[in-house]
Amino acid sequence: EQGCSDRCSNPSDSNIRKKEHEKMEKYQGLKEEIEKCGSDVCMTFLPCYCIFVCTDLLPASGGEKVTKEFLHELLNILLGYICKSSRRSGKVLDFHHPHQLKEGLEGFSLQLTDKPETLEQILVDCRDTLKYGVNTGHPRFFNQLSSGLDLIGLAGEWLTSTANSNMFTYEVSPVFILMEEVLLKKMQGIVGWSDDEGDGIFCPGGTISNLYSILVARYYFYPEVKTRGMRALPQLAIFTSEHSHYSVKKSAAVLGMGSENVLMVKCDESGKMIPVELESSIVAAEERGLVPFYVNATAGTTVYGAFDPFNDIADICHGHNLWMHVDAAWGGGLLMSDRHRMKLQGIERAWSVTWNPHKMMGVPLQCSVILIKKRGLLQDCNELGAEYLFQRDKPYDVSYDTGDKSIQCGRHVDVFKFWLMWKAKGSEGFGSQVNKCLENAEYLYDQLQRRTGFELVFKNKPEHSNVCFWYIPPTMRGLPPGPDRDTRLHQVAPRIKHRMMEQGSVLIGYQPLGDKVNFFRCVFSNPATQQEDVDFLLDEITRLGNDL
Amino acid sequence: EQGCSDRCSNPSDSNIRKKEHEKMEKYQGLKEEIEKCGSDVCMTFLPCYCIFVCTDLLPASGGEKVTKEFLHELLNILLGYICKSSRRSGKVLDFHHPHQLKEGLEGFSLQLTDKPETLEQILVDCRDTLKYGVNTGHPRFFNQLSSGLDLIGLAGEWLTSTANSNMFTYEVSPVFILMEEVLLKKMQGIVGWSDDEGDGIFCPGGTISNLYSILVARYYFYPEVKTRGMRALPQLAIFTSEHSHYSVKKSAAVLGMGSENVLMVKCDESGKMIPVELESSIVAAEERGLVPFYVNATAGTTVYGAFDPFNDIADICHGHNLWMHVDAAWGGGLLMSDRHRMKLQGIERAWSVTWNPHKMMGVPLQCSVILIKKRGLLQDCNELGAEYLFQRDKPYDVSYDTGDKSIQCGRHVDVFKFWLMWKAKGSEGFGSQVNKCLENAEYLYDQLQRRTGFELVFKNKPEHSNVCFWYIPPTMRGLPPGPDRDTRLHQVAPRIKHRMMEQGSVLIGYQPLGDKVNFFRCVFSNPATQQEDVDFLLDEITRLGNDL
User: Do A182 and B158 touch (CB under 8 A)?
Assistant: First the structure.
């Protein structure tokens, strides 16, 4: 009687109690043995957790053994998943429609009830959650800019959640706050800023990082905006390329600047911003009475992976006294590679940089950074000095209480996994990883030119790991260019993707862009991917699209 | 030779190579044995990982055994930490100043280098990181609104990071997207909204949730703001109480509305907004030419834990056609308790609600939700329809691609740990947890009145788990009220806190508020905390402050 049900916080329902009592009787002997034994011996008594509920875990008295056993069993489940994800023989996904999952497949119910489940059932729920999810670590998952599963990064995440802390003050996160400082300095140095410049913060994703850059730029030119709002300012204009990420527009909408005041600058065939177009856009905007103040250049566009000409853009920004931001969310990783970092030449002239280590550097989601060249701006722009957090009469150097730099107040610890990966790989390890991903892209580019039925979306060798292409099924190969062919071709990628999802063998994205109908975009950011996977992808597209 | 160094991505440096070769020779025999054995046997050969680097982990060929062993060893470290955190005999923190940690304590170096470390060193780094951090799960950590370490929530986080996915589309996160839907509906029902209303999204923290509410409210009244910006709108005004969270002002600054257009409404002695003050503020603002559109009411203020009078505020909002938001980041958890949910009466009349399960419900950081009553607004307000993500020609119901509802684009999976905890506790389990925290607060409130040397900041019984008080050292007990006493009293809490940090035995926050000098704020959100911990806190304050 001094067992589970007494410690349980939900003892009201008599059915639950009765069931528990039955189980208790059945397993009482076993439980006693477990409680007597040390944790190592305990491991041999699996699965004793089937009689326990969550209130038997720590911090309940005597919960140590159950906790250890529960987490060990969880580890076995996660390890099984990790090992399976690494095998090419396993599926990337096992697709089900929303209604199928909602109806409950093989007893997997998403619904929540008033009563607790046993730990045994919790572990079953964990297994099912992984089973019906998408295996983003699979070497043949090419669907997103973030992929792969770095085991050191994973270890970092597990530790982070165990520490369960918050980035607002040094007081509660001394080590993580200092790691953030170390990493930000490191990244600023790699961008090419000098030791006496550079500031920044880890953000929940690249869009928020880009939003920060506009926010700080606006404050830099018009500090009164903080108290008085946009109505006290002239009508500002933002410039970004037509291939840039939609977060620039989204940020302008959120910040009360209006998405129509984001002016889209034309790109060349390979997706790079054309400097003279930027210059003439700025002049035209001024003539319309707008006040240009911010230019976003992109290092690694989302679809083509293009790098804007940073030095030319910096010259123009300098000439017009505009804030230059570089959105290197995707392309920043290339700075780690001696072979590829020259593609970002001129980035050091930017006043702010977005860089997402969770993309090209393989850090688990989320890990995104905004770097600001001028120190103190971020703090001035965002601080409100809430006294319940940021007391000035603390016994340590309160400049380490970085929470007031942020707009989020409480901030998830995204830094540790990244720090740990850097320790484990060294800067050089990240460089090798980037090189490998770009080699895969080059291999795909070569294969596309050699194989029948494939057509490149743009002819130049890709600069990043994005490769864009159409698959032309045999029946379409003789068709002349024109609207009829376009209409048919537009449907090919979605139909192949549909079949891919049903088969679950591989996953790749597609989209239209400008006047170009749906094409595949393959991206490489998972260092587990090998050339054989590239071959497999092309074979699979051919196999699935051959009859279209 | 076919071992580690060949698979290593950083083979360039000859010193590293040499060291590795030496190690290889030394451990070759051991390694061979490990590679021959199954994983269970392998466990007996600890620590073989000392010869490996991260490139030996999965997905490297043959990396399965090393991976298992590495993660098992990590689990041992984390389990050791978890067990220790649950013990009262352990310290809450082991304080070091920033410069001490930066200099490197006992070989723990934060600096990052070009070369990789061995897995053995990585595990040492993990141990050190935990060692110098703050134990937020300790039953005597009262410093923040989030505390405790829920083991099921932790399991959820570990699985989430293993799945390493992103919330933008159903395609890559089918299960998590549906869990978000289930949880949002559940929470909307608990708030009191009908089945045919309610929308929402998980956000990176309560500040961002509050920001969302203002963003959506602004769009609801002035949809043109999305494209044209704030300059196309009249000068809007926001109302919130002087005790409310600073995120309302911060959001107004970010959104380009200006922090001075956030009008602070007076509170009564216990920190509740005074409805007639709200009414007169609205009228006064209108007379000044401002356009009121949004009122933030608070359920559980940050310092006092006060609940605003929601029905009165709702009446005023209804009369003036204003958006009513309830910031229940801290107080939302009380909705789970039959005993306490009446404190939020009238919340169902709000048009939006912020609710952070990572606070009162004990979900690991971060887990915050914005609920919006009117469906579709969130999507309309934020969508930009990026075609590389949100294709309309997908083979499933694309209304499940919820990413375009968000401002973040990529979104961390914060939902699974919460879902898993709900499964494990049931709604009732959360209710019991909340009740227990509030019982601790009542116990502290009683003790403060019984013990000598303590003074309550406000006389009423606390509504939430916040208890605010001064400690008056013996030498100050005879002093008459006035500036001299205030000056001295103002220094008491910081000095006691300083000593607390040095001792590491307990951690509690303090702050001034309005005309009140520094006082302690104790909050209870960790279900591991018992009455004995409350007694300990008061004993410790007395012991540390007795001579001041």
Answer: no
- What confidence tier does A483 reach under pLDDT thresholds 50, 70, 90? very high
Q: Which residues in chain B have Cβ-Cβ distances shorter than 8 Å to A396? A: 97-98
- Minimum distance, in Å, between the CA of residue A521 and any CA atom of chain B: 9
Please tell me the distance in Å from A58's CA to the nearest CA on chain B.
7
Question: CB distance from A110 to chain B under 8 Å?
Answer: yes
A134 to chain B: nearest residue by CA?
B172
Look at residue B372 and tell me whether its pLDDT is greater than 60. Answer: yes
Q: Is residue A146 part of a domain?
A: no
Alpha carbons B370 and B202: distance in angstroms, whole number? 6
Range of the domain at B455: 424-545
Residues A152, B510: C-beta atoms closer than 8 Å: no
B41 and B179, same domain (yes or no): no
Taking only the tens place, the pLDDT of each residue in A312-352 is 999 999 999 999 999 999 999 999 999 999 999 999 999 99
Regarding beta strands B199-203 and B368-372, do their DSSP bridges make them parallel or antiparallel, or are they unpaired? antiparallel
Secondary structure of B185-217 in HEC code, one letter for each residue: HHHHHHHCCCCCCCEEEEECCHHHHHHHHHHHH
The CATH number for B297's domain is 3.40.640.10
Q: CA-nearest residue of chain A to B207? A: A408
**How far apart, in whole angstroms, are the C-alpha atoms of residue A104 and residue A101?**
5
User: Residue B147 class from Cβ within 10 Å (0-12 exposed, 13-18 middle, 19+ buried)?
Assistant: buried
- Residues of chain B in contact with residue A162, where contact means CB-CB under 8 angstroms, are 78, 81-82, 130, 149, 154
Please give the ipTM for the structure prediction: 0.92
Tokens of B137: 């799960």
> Do A265 and A350 fall within a single domain?
yes
Cβ-contact A245, A402 below 8 angstroms: no
Residue A103 reports pLDDT greater than 50? yes
| B126 vs A154, A155, A386: nearest CB | A155
The residue of chain A nearest to residue B134, with distances taken between CA atoms, is A172
Give residue-wise pLDDT tens across range A260-289.
Answer: 999 999 999 999 999 999 999 999 999 999
Task: Give B144's contacts in chain A (Cβ within 8 Å).
Answer: 166, 172
* HSE of A518, CA atoms in CB hemisphere, 13 A: 23
The number of distinct structural domains making up chain A is 3
Q: State the pLDDT at residue B388.
A: 81
Å between A229 CA and nearest CA of chain B: 4
> What's the gap in Å between the CA of B500 and the closest CA on chain A?
11
Digit-coded pLDDT (tens) for B381-403: 999 988 888 888 899 999 999 88
What is d(CA B202, CA B367) in angstroms, rounded to the nearest whole number?
A: 7
Q: What pLDDT sits at residue A42?
A: 38
